Amino acid sequence: MVNLTKWSGLVATVASLVVILLPAFFRVTHPQALTSLLVGEVAAIALAHSAYRASSGKQASPLSVVAAIVSGLILLVSPLLLSPFDPFLTLMLGTSLVVLVGGILAGVDRIRGGAAGRQTGAERLAGH
Fold first, then answer.
1. How many Cα atoms sit within 13 Å of 69 on the Cβ side?
2. What is the pLDDT of residues 65-111, one digit of tens each?
3. Could you tell me if 82 and 96 are in contact, meaning their C-beta atoms sit under 8 angstroms apart?
4. Residue of 3, 9, 6, 1 whose CA lies nearest to 101
5. b or e along 2-26 (b: 16 or more beta carbons within 10 Å of the residue's beta carbon)?
6. What residues form the membrane-spanning segments (predicted)?
7. Minimal CA–CA distance to 91: which of 22, 4, 6?
8. Cα separation of 87 and 52, whole Å?
9. Running DSSP on this structure, what letter comes out for residue 59?
10. Nearest to 90 by CA among 8, 26, 13, 9
């Protein structure tokens, strides 16, 4: 589960960065551009922190899990309410789903994480 959390956190962080950059390529409303920028930054920070902790052998912090899930939900709903046009809508829905799944997987790892999630990186490497 640790590797899944680490890699999904990394992919979700990249998706958050894509969300931040999308308004630069499409003509969107000012509120949508701000939402993508600000909420995307929070999601990127939270998911990168979760991926870092997973790669260090620690469980994701509860605050970063909640921030990633809430950010993913906001990013998922915002294009429907603020800028519902294709292809921006399709790209935002796809990337925000990746962000949301990354946050959910970090939360599942936090709840179900076993001994591997509580080992340090050196302890995990020594065990192989």
1. 12
2. 999 999 999 999 998 888 788 888 889 999 999 999 999 988 888 88
3. no
4. 9
5. beebbebbbbbbbbbbbbbebbeeb
6. 7-26, 32-51, 63-82, 88-108
7. 22
8. 32
9. P
10. 26
Instruction: Please classify residue 119 by burial: count the beta carbons closer than 10 Å to its beta carbon, then call 0-12 exposed, 13-18 middle and 19+ buried.
Output: middle
Token look-up 């949508």 returns 32
Cα separation of 114 and 125, whole Å?
16
pLDDT in tens, 30-39: 999 999 999 9
Cα–Cα distance, 39 to 68 (Å, whole number)? 9
Total-model pTM: 0.82
In the chain, what's the furthest Cα-to-Cα distance? 53
How far is it, in rounded angstroms, from Cα 128 to Cα 123? 9
